[in-house]
Write a structure and sequence with these properties.
heterodimer, A: mainly alpha, 5 helices, about 75% helix, B: alpha+beta, four-stranded mixed β-sheet, about 25% helix
């Protein structure tokens, strides 16, 4: 499964991060330009990102095998906070992705919710990455 | 003749007395490793493996031997209390140190794998640290400076004019820059070295909170541009909606 004896999560996580970041950027472009093509692109990026999430989450648990940071609830470890923040980001994007299937025109409050939720998800991805950086480089 | 014999015996006694402690000091091998692709548990194993405890006597020479490459990052050997920092050790790498005369329990860890549990306990056997306190009072004349010499193993607490200052481990100067005589009180304590409290949970992972503060600060900083962009996009769309409600 892992012939190089290297962690898999750091290698794989960049794919959903890139896709979900692109989803946020293209959603903003949709609202900046008013062009619906950006909406379709945003949904495509978000779909790919969300579909990659299960594999990446599994890889995270695979790499952390033996640490029992959840069972022991080691709140003093950055790892558990990375997990909490990254999971929140994943749930945010998954929830938004499911909500988008409604396909109704986004005006008024729905529009604000749309842009706010995706922005929140992107920010949580950023935060999770910062914590991961502390784990590796600190 | 007799004097020569006595002199010779004295020399022998001196040599034996000097070498004996060194001869009593043992060489200890500690194997370190773990991690890797298979998720093997991390360890520091001396002659009694499995408990992640390394028990030594003062003066012992410890040779840490690394058994594997440690997965994506090679292992290190760290004991902050003694300033032991081996640097990166690949498979087969060794790191040799001599245990100082500081009985107590210390945290032994591998820096890149510390967060993953590569932590052990270094136990230095010996009598517990004792402290004795004696108080002397010294009067410093105006303009006079007194330098206190601290004997080996001793430290001096100095008391400046009307205040108390603790400076363990230093050779302090008592200086009276005022215009009148001042009185200082020095307390001499017998102290070995700063050691961790006996019985403390030395196997607990020590967390430096500073990185957390840094991450949170950066994340909050990042929130500003993200929120600003989101707000701008929403406002533009809202304006468009108002101008052309049918199209949007």
């Amino acid at each position: 499964m892992n012939p190089f004896a290297l962690p898999v999560h750091p290698a794989l996580v960049h794919f959903p991060v890139a896709m979900l970041t692109a989803a946020w950027v293209t959603l903003l472009l949709r609202y900046f330009t008013g062009d619906d093509k950006w909406e379709a692109r945003s949904r495509l990026f978000e779909t790919v990102g969300v579909l990659l999430l299960p594999l990446v989450i599994w890889a995270g648990f695979y790499d952390a095998e033996g640490l029992d940071f959840l069972r022991e609830r080691r709140w003093d470890l950055p790892l558990i906070w990375h997990f909490v923040v990254a999971s929140s980001a994943a749930l945010t994007f998954v929830g938004h992705w499911l909500w988008r299937f409604r396909r109704r025109a986004l005006t008024g409050l729905a529009m604000w919710v749309d842009v706010a939720v995706v922005s929140l998800g992107f920010w949580l991805v950023l935060f999770a990455g910062l914590i991961a950086g502390e784990m590796v480089y600190a | 003749m007799r004097n020569r014999v006595l002199f010779g015996l004295s020399v022998v006694a001196l040599v034996v007395g000097t070498l004996a402690p060194m001869a009593l000091a043992a060489s200890v091998t500690v194997r370190a490793g773990g991690g890797g692709g298979g998720g093997d548990p991390y360890y520091f194993n001396d002659s009694t493996p499995g408990d992640n405890k390394v028990t030594v006597n003062p003066g012992d020479k410890i040779t840490f031997v690394v058994d594997d490459n440690g997965g994506n990052q090679a292992h290190t050997v760290e004991v902050d209390a003694f300033g032991w920092h081996s640097g990166s050790l690949a498979k087969g790498g060794t790191y040799t140190v001599t245990v100082p005369n500081q009985p107590g329990e210390y945290t032994l860890y591998c820096k890149p794998h510390r967060q993953r549990g590569h932590v052990g306990t270094l136990v230095v056997l010996g009598d517990p640290v004792t402290t004795t306190t004696a108080t002397t009072t010294t009067t410093i004349a105006a303009g006079e400076t007194i330098t206190t010499t601290i004997a080996a193993g001793e430290t001096t607490m100095t008391v400046a004019v009307d205040t108390t200052t603790t400076m363990p481990g230093n050779a302090p100067e008592h200086s009276n820059a005022g215009g009148k005589n001042a009185t200082t009180t020095t307390t001499t304590t017998a102290l070995l070295a700063a050691a961790e409290e006996p019985g403390s949970d030395v196997t607990a992972l020590e967390v430096d909170l500073e990185p957390w503060t840094r991450s949170v600060r950066l994340a909050l900083l990042g929130l500003l541009p993200v929120a600003a962009l989101a707000l701008a996009a929403g406002l533009m769309q809202r304006r468009r909606n108002r101008e052309s409600p049918a199209e949007n």
